[in-house]
Amino acid sequence: MPERNFISYNAILAGFSHNSQGLNALNFFTMMVRFRVLGFSLTSVITACGLLADLETSRKIHGFLTKFGYGSNAHIEASLLDMYTRCGRMRDAEKLYFNQNNSIALNSMMSGYARARNGQPDEAVSHFRRSLSEGKLVMDETAWTTTLGVCGALGFRELGKQIHSFVVKAGFGADLGVGNSLVSMYSKCGEMDEAIKSFDAMPVRDVVSWNSLIAGHVLHREGDKALTIWSRMEKAGVIPDSITFVLLIAAYKHTSSNLVDHCRTMFLSMKPTYQIEPASEHYASLVGVLGSWGFIEEAEKMILELPFEPEVSIWKALLDSCRLHVNTAVGRRVAKKHPSGGASRPIDIRACIESVLCIRGLEVLLLECMRSGYEPGTSFVLHEVEEHQKKDLLFYHSAKLTATYGLLMTSPGQVIRIVKNVHVCGDCHSFLKHVSAVSEREISLRDGSGFHFFSDGQYSCRDYC
């Protein structure tokens, strides 16, 4: 650019922050200060600090803002609050929170409690109740809807139930948006019976209401029930949207019998019957269904004939199917075409990893599971390392550490609930199956593909994906 002003600089700064490139954002901000570029976006800088979870840098930025008189701005305070929760400094976040009285600040606090020490739902419940009782929070329809959405995303089941009771007392129980959020929240927290009750209690429903209930059944791998809801939806005369078909196609992956022909028919009917053009997410769902039922070559052929460049989600659906059916030939071809398709991201559970008690507990649990027949699935390690190194890498998988933490910190007989934002690997799936047997505990795991329930050495899903 021949000329640059603060708008162009801010665009770059915001772009780094929005794309989770915290270090680049801070470096760019330092350059802006050095060249005396005025009018920079402070919220983007604060967001960058939160992304890095760098407490020292975060405090320096906070001091910089206070020194130059920006600390009392409402938007700045909200960003600072979120920054401190991401750094694990809940006490500092609480001080900022009680200067505000909005649902955005509350949701940042709840997200922080979820991140801190592998989740603090009890703290979130007490914090929410205290905020309401002290009159610190004014809730409207949007605030209730947003807060319930956070509870569902974080798996805060008890807090969600508490908020439901507050919703009813506040007179928002019949609101359409709140009702939809209740259905979604309960299904994401593993409470499908409550989700159905909330749906049935709604005086008015829209397509989002039906989608939320169908999504719940798909999340719980109840394909037949999802299709039953679709039949009710059709009879009620509700016009489906694009999301409806993403969910319905995915439901065929979890039906009790092979209904792939019905799935193909539904997919092909989208445009002529409902005027909905199939998009990338519809193709990804269809690939998942075809692969799940063993039609891997057909799924690969369909991908190669797509009228557009396949996205990562489509390749990943095919790769997951190759793992499920041990189809190494197609799997290798997929890996060559899209090398990042099988990559996974580590989950930040440093509080658990740093705990000697948790590590020692996992060592004992691992031995017990191996006595019951568990064998480390080193084939799931994609790094080119020695066999013993693969076993070491598997040891630190987040699902294992979290399950151990749950066993150590909960009462005997209590259900262990785990929430992951990525797919559980096949080795962890096998491990949790054995844990449920040796510990005599039920385990509920929600990952990117839905719910997995383990009890007495058995599981509810067809293998791990």
Automatic annotation (TrEMBL):
**Entry's Pfam families?**
DYW_deaminase, PPR, PPR_2
On the tree of life, the source organism's domain of life is: Eukaryota
Q: Could you tell me which residue ranges the DYW domain spans?
A: 373-464
* GO MF entries: RNA binding; zinc ion binding
Which keywords has UniProt assigned to this entry? Repeat
A GO BP term here is: plant organ development
Instruction: Pinpoint the residue ranges of every PPR repeat in the record.
Output: 206-240
User: Which PANTHER family is this protein grouped with?
Assistant: PENTATRICOPEPTIDE REPEAT-CONTAINING PROTEIN (PTHR47926), REPEAT (PPR) SUPERFAMILY PROTEIN, PUTATIVE-RELATED (PTHR47926:SF512)
| Similarity-based family | Belongs to the PPR family. PCMP-H subfamily.
Its name, as the record gives it, is DYW domain-containing protein
Write the lineage as a comma-separated list: Eukaryota, Viridiplantae, Streptophyta, Embryophyta, Tracheophyta
